[in-house]
């Protein structure tokens, strides 16, 4: 799922026009719920999922071909130049070794390329629709402005779990981007009014700053439909690296039958916490896919080795908001 290496990043997460028109109609009525998700759309979800994965695979193939062509052209140039370095790096073996070293280094750095925030808003039950209207008009606007240096990964409402809780995941260019984003948005002349209104609609707000695991980059905007599951794990202190080692292997098994969105570990906020976000056609499909995971070699071993690392675990079923780029 290394999507970031094969798909271009958007300058801002701008939803297609039809998303925005849908948002207006829904906001005028009520906030989305699980009842809005048709329970018989599993086949359509699978078709969209396959199309999405094929698009990513084709993009990866094109990128790899372009790299091979560039390497071949450079190799031909080096042979003509007769430089002494050709004795080492001019051979296919030498170039592959150099490429492997570079790839390994970039994978290590990938963990620090982005910082994500996960924000939980507990909304007053009788203020949910007002909240949806307020946030639905503000968040997409802030994400669409390049000067704010922020991307909105997605916004969801909790349907099973802490009801009337809304979850938002934002993406920044490292911590500098996070700080710059806060500075830019809070200095807008219309921010005080928004902030005052927001505080009147919620009972609490909780924010954690996270980084994504290098083996599981966060997906780019897409629409597959269905429901989401946010699984949150509190680990025993000191076990994060061991968790990552096992999950790096286990994800290979899981992705054969399930569609992941992203995985993050908290660095500031609820420490020793890991969040995984999955997407399913519906709840019945979720049950079937999770059961199917046990038949994939390697998954049972991952569970066996990671369960002892966990203090607590929590599952939330989420419904994407009309403006959510990942939906």
Overview features:
8 strands, alpha+beta, 327 residues, 8-stranded antiparallel beta barrel, disordered N terminus, 10 helices
Broad shape: globular
**What does the largest sheet look like?**
8 strands, antiparallel, barrel
Biggest sheet: strands side by side, in what order? Answer: 1-3-2-8-5-7-6-4
Give the tally of β-strands: 8
Q: Would you tell me the overall average pLDDT?
A: 80
Distance between the termini: 17 Å
Strand content: 15-25%
Tell me the number of helical segments per DSSP (H or I, 4 or more residues long): 10
Unreliable spans: 1-29, 83-90, 100-110
Class from secondary-structure proportions: alpha+beta
Global Rg? 22 Å
Helices and strands, in order, run as: HHHHEHEEHHEEHEEHHE
Give an overview in words:
The protein has 327 residues and is an alpha+beta fold. The protein contains ten helices and eight strands. The chain has an eight-stranded antiparallel beta barrel with strand order 1-3-2-8-5-7-6-4, surrounded by five helices. β6 and β7 form a beta hairpin. α5 packs antiparallel against α7 and α8 packs antiparallel against α10. It is globular. The chain starts with 16 loop residues before the first helix and ends in a 7-residue tail after the last strand.
């Amino acid at each position: 799922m290394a999507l970031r290496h094969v798909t271009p990043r958007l300058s801002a997460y701008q939803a297609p026009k039809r998303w925005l028109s849908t948002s207006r109609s829904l906001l005028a009525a009520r906030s989305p719920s699980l009842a809005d998700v048709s329970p018989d759309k599993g086949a359509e979800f699978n078709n969209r999922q396959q199309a999405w994965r094929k698009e990513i695979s084709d993009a990866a193939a094109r990128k790899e071909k372009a790299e091979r062509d560039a390497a071949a052209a450079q190799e031909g140039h080096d042979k003509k130049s007769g430089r002494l370095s050709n004795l080492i790096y001019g051979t296919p073996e030498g170039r592959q070794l150099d490429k492997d070293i570079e790839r390994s280094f970039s994978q290590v750095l990938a963990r620090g390329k982005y910082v994500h925030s996960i924000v939980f808003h507990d909304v007053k039950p009788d203020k949910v629709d007002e909240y949806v209207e307020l946030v639905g008009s503000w968040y997409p606007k802030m994400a669409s402005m390049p000067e704010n240096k922020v991307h909105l990964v997605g916004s969801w409402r909790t349907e099973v779990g802490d009801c009337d809780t809304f979850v938002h995941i934002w993406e920044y260019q490292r911590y500098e981007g996070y700080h710059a984003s806060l500075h830019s948005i809070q200095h807008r002349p219309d921010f005080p009014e928004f902030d005052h209104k927001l505080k009147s609609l919620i009972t609490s707000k909780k924010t954690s700053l996270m980084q994504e695991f290098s083996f599981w980059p966060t997906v780019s905007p897409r629409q597959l439909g269905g429901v989401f599951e946010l699984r949150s794990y509190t680990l025993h202190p000191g076990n994060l690296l061991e968790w990552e080692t096992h999950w790096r292997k286990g994800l290979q098994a899981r992705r054969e039958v399930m569609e992941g969105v992203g995985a993050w570990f908290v660095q500031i906020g609820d420490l020793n916490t890991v969040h995984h976000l999955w997407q399913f056609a519906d709840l019945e499909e979720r049950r079937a896919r999770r059961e199917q995971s046990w038949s994939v070699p390697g998954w049972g071993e991952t569970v066996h080795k990671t369960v002892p690392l966990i203090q607590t675990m929590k599952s939330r079923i989420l419904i994407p908001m009309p403006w959510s780029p990942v939906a």
